[in-house]
Amino acid sequence: LETALRAARDLGEGRVIVVFGAGGDRDRGKRPLMGKVAAERADVAILTSDNPRSEDPLAIIQDVLQGAGMDVEIDPDRRSAIRRALGLAEPGDVVVVAGKGHEQGQEISGSVHPFDDRVVVREALAELHPPG
Fold this sequence. Notes:
Blueprint: H1 2-11, E1 16-20, H2 30-41, E2 44-47, H3 57-68, E3 73-74, H4 78-88, E4 94-97, E5 105-108, E6 111-114, H5 117-128
Parallel strand pairs: 1-2, 1-4, 2-3
Antiparallel strand pairs: 5-6
Helix pairs in contact: 1-2, 2-3, 4-5
């Protein structure tokens, strides 16, 4: 996350806006560190869910907040969080949607639900900036 945010800072002249989350059933010790990095490196940080697996997404968010403090917005709905970030962006800003990359599903309580960050970004941009 830190590397991506550092690179994003060099890409634009405006703010860095990040949407991020921590995966469930993974190293809990990294969660506060991710929150700290996002709060320090981004101008706007939106904390959301990212494959909570068998864990409660809100509990994961609380773990991340231990490092971030209150310097982040919280939206457990990943689709909504991505749309919020893109809606906040102004010319010159860079929006980083971190965590899922090429994955095409969101793993929640043992089931994989279709979800692709790239598709959500395209849909949100089309709504925010309709052609013509």
